[in-house]
Amino acid sequence: MPQLLSVDKALAQILDDMQPLDSENVALAEALDRVIASDIAAPLDLPPFDNSAMDGYAIRHKDSVNASQQQPATLRVTQDIPAGAAPTSALQPGQAARIMTGAPIPPGCSAVAPVEDTNDNWRKRGNPALPEEVQVYSDYAFGANIRRKGENIERGATIMRAGTVIQPAEIGMLAAIGCARFAVVRKPKVVILSSGDELVDVHEALDAGKIRDTNSYALAGLIRQAGGIPIRLPIARDNLSDIRALYNRALGINPDMIISSAGVSVGAADLVREVMDELGDIDFWRINMRPGKPLAYGALQGIPFFGLPGNPVSTMVTFEVFVRPALAKLARRALRRKTLTATIAEDLRSDGRRSYNRVRLAREGACIVAHSTGSQSSGALMSMLLADGLAIIPEGQRLAPAGSELPVLLLRPFE
Ligand code: AMP
Ligand code: MG
Fold first, then answer.
1. Is the whole-model pTM more than 0.85?
2. What is the Cα Rg of the chain in Å?
3. What is the 3-state secondary structure (H, E, C) of the chain?
4. Which of 58, 73, 105, 404 is buried most deeply by CB count within 10 Å?
5. What is the pLDDT, as a whole number, of residue 52?
């Protein structure tokens, strides 16, 4: 039997080939979960001007020396500065300005006395008229209750690095600095191909011997989940002209990746292989893994191509192992994939290939226990539905006895 290629070697070659994608501009409102393409610096200070942190009175702090409830400092109120307004004059000694949170402090002001700490009960009065005088009940330090220009961010500072995935806080910050459109990494456009005389689409009748095309839908979900844009093409029949037309149509879309499921197993491969030879440079790998030994990989007219094995579980597992990391590199995203260690509940067997066993996880006392999801046949899609993760038996090992620990690659969040 020819030497099998290790998972790690295959993945290393794949990742080496992937070229991160270029960028496109998006509007801020469309930017959630996109990846920033280049560092973003603040074009202004934040806050952009000194402003009040409280509703109250802008004062000169020296005017409040030794002030208390018993001996308030009485100040003359000379102006009103609501949010959004600009001060009309500087504060002179003995003067105060009524000010709202976020409003710019006037020149000469060196502290803000919160309204609760004055004799003004404007909220109770319900009367917005400016009083002539205000009594301040505390002694304020220089700068008290003032938010200084640039104290959060100084103009020119880098606030987001290339590669940051935009979350709501980033959206808020980009709005604050006036970034209405900016460069994000393009989403990988991925064409999905299916071929086989046995396949019908989901809305078609299931005549004798037929099965529904499962993989192209599952793959579309996986691609979308990985931040890509899936494009499903109609099923090709098992003949040369249909398959050739399908591949040419895929290339005409000029995608960033093409994924086909099926057609790479022994016996099925010939037609697809002929078309691949015409259009590109594809290797037919035999990988030391289970499920998913056969994998076609290479480039069609320069576009990365994966020919995944057709059994639905194999398709999904090989996507996890090879395609998801490849898409992450194209999309310039960190591959945030979690592996944890679990104690297996029953014996798991392998044939010496690295094997990915579908398991359900449960917290039992201090342990995380992995239970097999039943039949591990590569056609048994139910094993994927029930699985929280893939328990990995390393190559060379044929038995993982109950009670031993295995690494589990999570397929969904597990708390
Ligand atoms: P093949 O590589 O063409 O021999 O296919 C291997 C197995 O995967 C066969 O049982 C196919 O019927 C099945 N298969 C291939 N493509 C799909 C698909 N798109 N959806 C579901 N099963 C498929
Ligand atoms: Mg087939």
1. yes
2. 32
3. CCCCECHHHHHHHHHHHCCCCCEEEEEHHHCCCCEECCCEECCCCECCCCEECCCEEEECHHHHCCCCCCCCEEEEEEEEECCCCCCCCCCCCCEEEEECCCCECCCCCCEEEEHHHECCCHHHHCCCCCCCEEEECCCCCCCCCEECCCCCECCCCEEECCCCECCHHHHHHHHHCCCCEEEEECCCEEEEEEECCCEECCCCCCCCCCEECCHHHHHHHHHHHCCCEEEECCCECCCHHHHHHHHHHHHHCCCCEEEEECCCCCCCHHHHHHHHHHHEEEEEEEECEECCCEEEEEEECCEEEEEECCCHHHHHHHHHHHHHHHHHHHCCCCCCCCEEEEEECCCEECCCCEEEEEEEEEEECCEEEEEECCCCCCCCCHHHHCCCEEEEECCCCCEECCCCEEEEEECCCCC
4. 58
5. 98
- Ligand 1 test: best mutation among 191, 192, 193, 199, most atoms within 8 Å of CB? 199
Q: What are the pLDDT digits (tens) for 246-271?
A: 999 999 999 999 999 987 776 666 78
The residue among 1, 9, 32 whose CA lies nearest residue 295 is 9
Is the C-beta atom of 259 inside 6 A of ligand 1?
Answer: no
Query: Do the beta carbons of residue 230 and residue 194 sit within 8 Å?
Result: no
The answer to whether the CB of 58 falls within 8 A of the CB of 112 is yes
Two tokens at 335? 């591959």
Does ligand 1 have an atom closer than 6 angstroms to the CB of 201? no
Write out the two tokens for 267.
């016996």
Ligand 1: which atom is nearest the Cα of residue 235?
Answer: 19
Cβ pair 335, 403 in contact under 8 A = no
Counting ligands in written order, the one closest to the CA of 260 is 1
Give residue 206 CA to ligand 2 midpoint distance, Å.
Answer: 17
